[in-house]
Amino acid sequence: MATTTKIRLRVLVRASGGPRYAVALAVDALGTGLLRPFLLLYGVMVLRLSAPATGVAMTVGVVVGLVCLPAVGRWLDRGARSAVVAASMLVRVLGVALLPAAPAGNVWLFATAALFLGIGNQAWPAAHAAVVATVAHGRERDAALAAGRALRNAGLGAGALLATASLAGGTTALQVLAAVTGLAYLAAGALAWSVRLRTHPAAVPAEGGSGEPAPRMRVLLAANVVYVFCLNVPEIALPLILVTQMHASPVWSAAIFVANTLLVVTLQVPVTVLMSRFSRRTVLALAGVVLAASYLGFLAATSLGHGWGAPAVAAVSVVCTIGEIVYAGSATALVTALAPARLLGRALSRFQLSTGFGLAVSPAVITTLASYGSAALWGSLAAATLLSASAVAAESSRRPHRACTARRGVRDDA
């Protein structure tokens, strides 16, 4: 098994698409961090929409954005790579441009803006993974995917901090943030387009031919819907529990979110490289065990009461973030290893569809379970995640499907 043992910045940049592409990712993430956490406030404060109407419009934008994924997959399978990434960035320019054009009280233009932003946000992960899978191979590809996630989290965090510092300016500051975000998306899209990376689509055999079969990923996709709940734990579950049930200071929630971002930025690549000595399925199953253990840890921490409860939750959140890092470093990499070259785009779009669905339903599921108490929330999440990890582990115990890496003709360990 080929194992990446050293981290070289130059190698990671090359494997991630090159310097221009890396700059495009950083600029795009910075722009996203400037506006995405405050899009709800833009609707409420600038457009004078009600909070429920704003929230529904944003949710509809995210869900309808998922509908574009099959088309994204087919476009990728026709050989497009950097063009799809650029399109995912440029379509968000349209969304941001609609925000200042929307008159106060007009929920439809705001919903249309949220739709364009949703399309871009849903299309980008699959397109980016396809770019990395085209220029990098084997475990180097896994490290490059991890580096992309670390870079994106750093950009998102920096953008959010800049936006937070600017919010004292009120509605004018939000309008300026929207304008800067649009410019950032435009610049990032132009940079990504200039990379001009594409691949010749593998010949698709006629019906009944002997081509590589499509990977059976039903277990992986179903498990991913549950795994992805961990991404909303720092943003939704923990603030909800800490503030409304434990009556702790909101500072604890903010500190946990900042720590989560810093840990992802600093540890995503090293942990992914460290785990490369094991098969990706095994690592993904291990991630589920770590996440389930952290959920049980949250259950124990919330029983400690007001004094020690919040610090205990913060400590357990580190374990949850480690589980998130292990999951993120193995899941997409496993999909790219399983999928034949001719079906890579469709496989990645199906995976992103499961991710987007999980992210869309998790806030409602988390808040509903939390209303029944900590035991219902954390116990249900732990049981569902352990069940998903068991299913992934059971798949790994069977004869693994090894996807042929078309660019080098070697078989990739999954």
From TrEMBL:
Query: Topology relative to the membrane, per the entry?
Result: Multi-pass membrane protein
Protein name, entry field: MFS transporter
Q: Which domain of life is it from?
A: Bacteria
**Which PANTHER family does the entry link to?**
MULTIDRUG RESISTANCE PROTEIN MDTH (PTHR23517:SF2), RESISTANCE PROTEIN MDTM, PUTATIVE-RELATED-RELATED (PTHR23517)
Q: Which residues cross the membrane?
A: 21-45, 51-72, 174-193, 219-242, 254-275, 282-301, 313-339, 351-370, 376-394
Transmembrane in keyword set: yes
Q: Which Gene3D superfamilies match?
A: MFS general substrate transporter like domains
- UniProt KW keywords: Cell membrane, Membrane, Transmembrane, Transmembrane helix, Transport
Q: Where in the cell is it found?
A: Cell membrane
Which Pfam families does the entry link to? MFS_1
